[in-house]
Amino acid sequence: xxxxxxxxxxxxxxxxxxxxxxxxxxxxxxxxxxxxxxxxxxxxxxxxxxxxxxxxxxxxxxxxxxxxxxxxxxxx
Length: 76
Description:
Layout: E1 10-17, E2 20-27, E3 35-42, H1 52-73
Antiparallel strand pairs: 1-2, 2-3
């Protein structure tokens, strides 16, 4: 689980390839759906922390996923 998202079920996959690090963030919080929130190359030379700009993207897309799932799950 990725910290900072409460019970949103946000997970992160980290993969190293060709001396670069890639991250994919997704949520499994919603029944019947998995939403990929963001995928990016980690470019920071300092530490393993996710940059703030990436956090903003993830949070905005999690909010959009909530809205989409609410609309989608209300369909007959």
